[in-house]
Specification:
6-stranded antiparallel beta sheet; single chain; 14% helix; 3 domains; mainly beta
């Protein structure tokens, strides 16, 4: 019997004539009585499993109905797959944990029914609940468009065409993120009235004790910060609501030494885009203890961080991996001007740095660094800067412009995970896989909305693993100034 096929599919809606779980089925399929399936008058069998994931309490039961010779319970596996693959963490608007199914070939015409707890929907209209299928191996999502919702029994039922992982999600939140036309599903709610995913899944330290949620929402996305309480409110806004990039003007020196602080931005779907104007003020005593957590720093996971004219003194920051003073992990723009950092940083792996843990190259102008990383003095602003300084290989690939005015590269089979890296001045526009491309296609420049006659900076990077166990991305070509 197949037990676990870790292919994940995100399907959005599925209609069908499914048998939902009723109270009798709940009783039959109790913890001590799960070894048989219920058979209806048409010969279809149904069996189910209770779901209990404290971090994702919306889904409480899953059942399958199918044609099967023999006992369906013995030929079909269902159960929660929390936290699931990284694709799940990248899915906006997910409701409850992912649910996995695998079955033998003798099981036919499968319908899955997911029962949700209406009181845990946090203001999401029931009409907005859709099912999805995600394929882990192919990194694809599929929206199931034919499904049945029973708002009296709190169930969503849909036919299962593929083994793998299924989820429920809010079509409005997902659609907004994906640029879909979903105006018919629009709704408004006061998110401060509901517990966020961040509050469910992470230790929030002293942030919620300090944060003025109403002030944070009313003043977003541009803040003038004079107190620790206001700064905590911004951390809450980014981690719990996160609808817009935030800009901070620091109006006073702040002392955070008495507080158990937490990072601003905690996953790639709850990342921060931060612009921080320190106005020559100081933040003292930032203390973040997240030893079992990755992406740890003043910002944890960031898409972009721009800071100027600020000093952070006596920081003490600890995390598992991807740890830095100002950002644990950031792949977009990293620009620091007249910024200083002093204190201690601790991380369990190599992606630990001064200003930044993991991420591409940054721009550091008139900046000062006086920190120890795991007890050793650190002279690099990021682990990436350290690795690239020590491992850059400009001769691995050669970039040039061909007769068609396209950027082209030479071949080299000694490197994998190679990418084009494109900058517009100091702004990082894109890092994109180049394994199957020997020149940058016109479609990529069109996607970036490149301007005719403008000069862009292009180089190649690749992942390198050294014999001493260190690894990372480094530049593996010359730097080309390209006029589009």
């Amino acid at each position: 019997m197949k037990k676990r096929l870790f292919c994940l599919g995100l399907c959005l809606a599925v209609s069908l004539t499914a048998t939902a779980c009723d109270d009798d089925l709940f009783q039959i399929q109790g913890e001590n009585n799960k070894n048989s399936a219920v058979i209806d008058e048409n010969g279809y069998q149904t069996y189910g499993e209770r779901i209990k994931v404290d971090e994702k309490p919306e889904i409480i039961y899953v059942s399958v109905t199918a044609e099967c010779s023999g006992n369906l319970y013995d030929k079909c596996y269902i159960g929660e797959d929390y936290p699931g693959n990284v694709l799940i963490s990248q899915t906006v608007g997910i409701i409850g944990p992912p649910v996995q199914i695998s079955a033998e070939e003798t099981v036919k015409n499968i319908t899955m029914t997911l029962t949700y707890n209406e009181t845990e929907l946090r203001g999401i209209p029931e009409k907005n609940i859709f099912p999805m299928y995600v394929n882990y191996e192919e990194s694809t999502w599929k929206i199931i468009e034919d499904f049945n919702t029973d708002t009296e029994k709190n169930t969503v039922s849909f036919p299962v065409e593929n083994e793998g992982v299924y989820i429920l999600f809010d079509i409005y939140q997902y659609g907004k993120a994906m640029g879909m036309e979903i105006s018919q599903y629009a709704y408004e709610k006061d998110k401060t009235l509901y517990q966020s995913d961040w509050e469910r899944e992470r230790d929030t330290g002293d942030i919620l004790k300090l944060a003025d949620k109403k002030w944070a929402v009313e003043n977003a996305p541009t803040y003038h910060v004079s107190t620790p309480e206001q700064l905590a409110g911004i951390v809450y806004y980014v981690n719990a609501i996160n609808e817009k990039p935030v800009e901070i003007y620091l109006e006073n020196d702040l002392d955070l030494s008495e507080y158990h602080w937490k990072p601003m931005g905690w996953t790639n779907t709850h990342a921060t885009n931060l612009t921080f104007h320190g106005q020559n003020h100081t933040i003292n005593g930032l203390t973040i203890n997240c030893r079992g957590i990755q992406e740890v720093g003043f910002t944890g996971y960031a898409w972009s961080i721009i800071m100027e004219d600020v000093s952070f003194t006596n920081v003490n920051i600890s995390g598992s991996r991807c740890v830095g003073g100002f950002s644990g992990e950031c792949y977009g723009t990293k620009k620091f001007t007249n910024v200083s950092l002093s204190g201690e940083i601790h991380g369990n792996d190599e992606d630990t740095g001064g200003f930044i843990g993991r991420g591409g190259e940054g721009i550091y102008t008139d900046c000062k660094l006086d920190v120890t990383v795991n007890g050793e003095p650190c002279r690099y602003f990021s682990y990436t800067d350290k690795f690239r300084t020590e491992n850059t290989d400009e001769t691995a690939f050669t970039l040039s412009v061909n007769s068609n005015n396209r950027v082209q590269r030479t071949e080299n089979d000694k490197y994998d995970r190679i990418s084009w890296v494109i900058y517009d001045g100091d702004d990082h526009l894109m890092s994109r896989g180049a394994e199957n491309e020997t020149e940058i296609p016109d479609s990529l420049w069109e996607y970036l909305k490149a301007e005719k006659g403008k000069t862009y900076t292009v180089y190649m990077e690749a992942y390198k693993r050294n014999s001493d166990g260190t690894s990372g991305y480094t530049r593996v070509s010359n730097i080309l100034k390209y006029i589009y």
